[in-house]
Amino acid sequence: MYEAISAVMPDWHLLRIGRAATVNRLGDPALEMPTPGLVLWLDELQNFVQGPYLNPRDDALDPEILRRLLNLDTPIILISTTWHERFQELRSKEKEESSHVLRPRYPEAHEVLGLATFHRSLPDRPFTTDSERRSLANAAERDPRIVRASKDPNYGTTQVLAGGDWLIRRFDNAPRPYSHALLSAAIDARWLGVRGPLSESLLRDLARAYLPAPERADEWFAPALAYATARDPYEADTAALLPIADPDNRKTVGFEIADYLLQHMLRQRRLHPSPIPALAWHVLAEHIDSGNELHWVGNAAFHRDLPEIAEVLYRRAASLGDGTPSASLVRLLKDLGRDAEIEELWREGARAGDASSLRRLGILLAAEGRDVEAEQVCREGLAGGDARICGVLANLLSRQGRRVETEDVWRQGVALGDVRSCRALADALRRPAWHPESDQLMRDIAENSPAVYQTLTALLRRASRHGEAEELLREVAGGEPGIRRILGDLLQQQERYAEAERLLRGCLTAGDVRTHRALATILRSEGRHAEADEVLRSAVAAGDYRACRMLVYSLEMQGRGDEVEGLWRECAAAGDPGARKTLASLLKKQGRDDEIEEVWRQGANAGDANARRHLAGLLYRQGRHAEAEQVWREAARCGDKGALHTLTELLEKQARHAEAESLLWDALNAGIVGAVQHLIALLRHQGRDAEIEHVRRVAVDADLPGSVGPLANLLYRKKRYVEAEQVWRDAIANGVPGARRGLAHLLRKLDREAEIELVWRDGVAAGDPQARRQLAELLERRRQLEVVQGASEA
User: Within 10 Å of residue 569's Cβ, how many Cβ atoms?
Assistant: First the structure.
């Protein structure tokens, strides 16, 4: 990575980051960034963002600070690496418990990853292009180790240079039973969900589970640990187990497994799963002191169809936390048919003071028709200040026709600051048969929940009760610029412009730039165009591009169209793509094509993909084909699939087939997904169908999404069933989602139904969450078939 950064940006400053707090401190506006630019290198991104890999003692990257850094005048580039599996995990989503809406599992990590303008999956592969081979030859003259690495038949060049081959040999040749048991225990601990440092005591006790015979003493452990942590300076100076120091770098707090070794062994575990020793589960339950890790290990046991072990781990996780039973434990008890215990579980949580347990108990009792008990539980939760239980109790009372009591529950929820209660009460108050809201209720809302002001303010305004709406807004508007904007809108509707102006100018003083447009509207309505324009210019300078459009309209209405172009140029220079497009249209109407080119070129240099496309199209229409082609090539290198498609078509029309093919191969090797189909279409057009398989294999090796199925299907159509099966099994080893399902489907087409059960049982042993359900469905279908056959015979 260092060499790549130095080659591309030799004059830039490079800072390798150890902790996210360092990046967060760089967000201090008082700091002056070095010129011409700064590269921040974060190795192992998962250790810097919110999620299961972040050290509990460390801060996570702040998305707002990161966004601010990336928008500074001094250019900053953040480069990081992580495993593909971890990247997908950090971007994963889960259903929200209350609404069943998919939400990011780790919102801050999802936001940080969303800031990335470019990411690629980079497989380790041989050096294939001419430039890569030349670079390799030049480097080999300075370092003979590179020659050896490039000639290794089993590993890629970078794998050898990083010590990957040595780490695998270190594991395979580990003295048995002790050193091999220690390394196996460490790998399985990570596989099952232990994310923190592996302490010596955990490794010692866990390794015992992997010994073939009992050992009374612990003398075996020190030599085994010495072997696992030994480094070889001639083999990338790495070790199978790497020590982790405390923040003061005074002592070792635990160990981490070398990344390449762990990744390789996890692939082997997925493909050839072996049972986890029973003692290992008990050791993990005793040693882990993190509720989250216990929960993850419990999930691993559950997916391996070990309900008794999973229950122990889930219950211990709850005891280490706040006493709250997990949804996983409830799911487990339901699967086991122990519904009666679920009620007791929620009661235990409620006795421990957990509001969510009390609420779930109320839902359970109401669902079973035990309304009296459910009401008692819900009222207890409401008395304890749980606003979310209002919905449960109100629904229960409403079902019984107790409307007055239902309204009272919603009022209590409003007093507790519950937005849902506010909405429900607002709906109820619209009905003529129900009592109107009181002034005291409005004060309670203003005092306890400013967040609900908008709903009730709208209700009052619809009822023409503007005075009460204004009073409510004024009571809660003190430190809330958003509320002050709504109050300003109310005053403006009543033509109280002077008061509205004072209020909105106060928002501007407080730094709320979003009120510029509202203030400008008031000033313009009074004919104070110069002041309105000045307010809008301030908004534009602060990055409010919607204000730019308002200002343009104002200038045109005043006959000052000559100023419009300068305004659009200002917004375009600040990075607004819409302003850039509008400016280009304006120049086009005036026939100023030379200036249009400069507009699009500035956007292209700023990384605007749309500007690149417009620039290339403009150059091509002007007959400057070579320049257009260069722009398309740059866009394609940046992962622009549209540019790749356009450039490929252009080269094909010009009969430059070899160049088109070379372009697509480079894109494929760089991990650009769209290159696969374009390259296959080109080969088919040239009648080179025999080479399509090679393209499919390269795509699979590059770990491109959706590449495994097409290769397996291609081999199946060619009746090369053994190879098709191997493709799916390799995908299972690499953790490709849906690979077991693909293998099962293939076996079904080959009439090897009996083997499908083994596929799912291996998945259960490997902890595949989908395998357990698929196996259950398979066995249930088989049982139903046997019942039907038995009835037919009878």
Answer: 18
Q: Residue 26: what pLDDT?
A: 85
User: Hey, how many other C-beta atoms are within 10 angstroms of the C-beta on 349?
Assistant: 22
- In b/e form, how buried is each residue of 351-369, taking b as 16+ CB within 10 angstroms? eeebbbbbbbbbbbbbeee
Per-residue confidence (pLDDT) for residue 637, from 0 to 100: 76
The pLDDT value recorded for residue 534 is 80
Amino acid at 586: L
Of residues 548, 602, 595, 550, the one with CA closest to residue 571: 548
- The residues, ordered by sequence, that sit 6+ positions from 189 with a Cβ below 8 Å of its Cβ are 198, 202, 206, 284
pLDDT of residue 269: 87
CA-closest candidate to residue 728, choices 736, 771, 720: 736
Per-residue pLDDT band for 703 (boundaries 50, 70, 90) equals confident
Per DSSP bridges, beta strands 93-95 and 102-104 are antiparallel
3-state secondary structure 307-348: HHHHHHHHHHHHHHCCCCCCHHHHHHHHHCCCHHHHHHHHHH
Q: What share of the chain is helix, strand, coil (3-state, %, to 5)?
A: 65, 5, 30
- How many CB atoms neighbour CB 137 within 10 A? 13
Q: Is the pLDDT of residue 475 over 60?
A: no
Per-residue pLDDT averaged across 494-502, rounded? 73
pLDDT in tens, 526-553: 778 788 778 777 777 666 667 777 777 7
Strand partners of residue 95: 102
Among residues 773, 779, 781, the alpha carbon closest in space to that of 741 is found at 773
CA-to-CA distance for 540 and 563, rounded, in angstroms?
Answer: 14
Tokens of 774: 């698929």
Start-to-end C-alpha separation, the chain: 72
* DSSP secondary structure, 600-637, as one string: HHHHHHTT-HHHHHHHHHHHHHTT-HHHHHHHHHHHHH
3-class SS of residue 27: coil
Which amino acid, residue 576?
Answer: D
Cβ(741)–Cβ(774) under 8 Å? Answer: yes
